[in-house]
Specification:
Number of helices: 11
Shape: globular
Distance between the termini: 48 Å
Order of helices and strands: HHHHHHHHHHH
Number of strands: 0
Structural class: mainly alpha
Strand content: under 5%
Radius of gyration: 21 Å
């Protein structure tokens, strides 16, 4: 029996959940163990990320159609999901809390996706979606205005918004230019590896080899294997199954997980205005996606009761 692709399946949703959560969990884990102590710089994390992923996926990058047009599309994908995107987001965490990243990026992605779907895909913007989008904007404003770090945190939030815009563009193009998920991930990693080589020649890799082996192993595992390889492959798979719009449904879980882990693992306690902004963004995402909590109904006892004659 042919599966209805318009209905998200548990397997596809699980693909999407892991794809969305792993980059944030990886970054949080790295910061918790090392980043807050200033052992490495954002550019070094990005270089290590694609050094591992690029070498790991290089054999797959050369498979399949290799026309100039195919590699041109891959270069555009790498622009929005490769080294520039990773530099934006990784640099942002030097200024903004991890909890902001887990909420701002999905919120920005959803806003851009709604607008792109309305303008270019003919998807009607309903009143409910518009209301959710307004709540997201209000929440983003609350985060910017109530940030405990002032202008420094606001600058980090702006970088996170730019990262969300970049990832939303990548998601949109992934649907416009359908391509095998493994091929996309491998070519993004391969082209990003070339950019990383340019950064190394420019002197940005100084001190990378002097980092503790434990730091290199942890960041190589999280950034290079889980985030840049496994997560991207799973996300591409989820978009192929669910579509770019439905793939963002699982986004509603990401802010909740990110905020909880930031509090439990990083001891990041938001201010009252920040907390209100986070809750508002979460509510906006849920409303825009039409997520409803269905009441649990008790099953009636339909057991046959024999009649007494």
């Amino acid at each position: 029996m042919q599966q209805d692709m318009s209905t998200p399946t548990p397997g596809a949703s699980w693909h999407c959940l892991r794809a969305w959560c792993r980059p944030y969990l990886g970054r949080m884990a790295g910061d918790y163990h090392h980043g807050r102590q200033g052992e490495h710089q954002p550019v070094q994390v990005v270089m290590l990320r694609f050094l591992v992923a690029g070498i790991l996926l290089a054999p797959f990058a050369l498979r399949g159609p290799s026309t100039l047009r195919d590699w041109g599309k891959a270069a555009v994908f790498a622009l929005f999901a490769g080294t520039p995107y990773a530099l934006l987001v990784t640099s942002a965490f030097e200024y903004a809390p991890a909890s902001h990243g887990g909420v701002i990026i999905p919120g920005t992605v959803l806003l851009v996706s709604l607008m792109a779907a309305h303008l270019w895909l003919g998807d009607r913007l309903t009143k409910l979606r518009a209301f959710g989008a307004v709540l997201i904007l209000i929440g983003l404003g609350g985060l910017a205005g109530g940030a405990a770090g002032g202008l420094r945190t606001m600058f980090g939030d702006m970088l996170l918004m730019a990262g969300g815009l970049s990832w939303a563009t990548y998601t949109f193009l992934l649907r416009r230019w359908p391509m095998d998920g493994l091929r996309v991930a491998s070519r993004v990693a391969f082209l990003s590896l070339i950019l990383v080589g340019g950064l190394a020649l420019a002197g940005y890799g100084e001190g990378l080899t002097s980092l503790p082996l434990e730091t290199l192993a942890l960041q190589g595992l999280w950034q290079g294997i889980l985030s840049a390889t496994v997560a991207l492959l799973l996300f591409n798979k989820a978009v192929g199954i669910l579509g770019s719009g439905r793939a963002s449904i699982i986004n509603a879980l990401t802010p909740v997980i990110a905020v909880l882990l930031s509090f439990l693992m990083l001891d990041e306690v938001p201010t009252l205005i920040e907390f209100a902004g986070l809750i508002t963004i979460m509510a906006g995402i849920a409303i825009a996606l039409g997520i409803r909590i269905k009441p649990i109904r008790r099953k009636r006892d339909t057991a046959h009761v024999p009649e007494v004659s």
